[in-house]
Design goal:
about 80 residues; 6 strands; single chain
């Protein structure tokens, strides 16, 4: 599926930094694809963090670059998906 800007929400903003939440039916690796977040390029800044609730995992990505409307994120830091108890 494609990114929907309505699935992206601001959680906190301070000192030029924004913490976002993204709820998506895509996999977290899809979110990490360069250009996935392009329609939000005017809102996202390098260094912003996004908590991603994806179809397969929950994790974090940060905005690595945002040049000429093309957004790229750093590799996701996924939270563990297993529960051993």
């Amino acid at each position: 599926m494609a990114f929907k800007i309505t699935d992206l929400s601001v959680l906190a903003y301070a000192n030029g930094f924004t913490l976002w939440h993204l709820k998506t039916t895509d996999n977290i690796d899809d979110v990490d694809t360069q250009g996935y977040l392009n329609s939000a390029n005017e809102m996202l800044r390098v260094g912003d963090m996004i908590i991603v609730s994806a179809l397969d995992k929950v994790g974090f990505v940060s905005v690595a670059t945002n040049d000429n409307g093309v957004v790229d994120t750093k590799d996701p830091l996924a939270l563990p998906v297993s529960d051993t108890d």
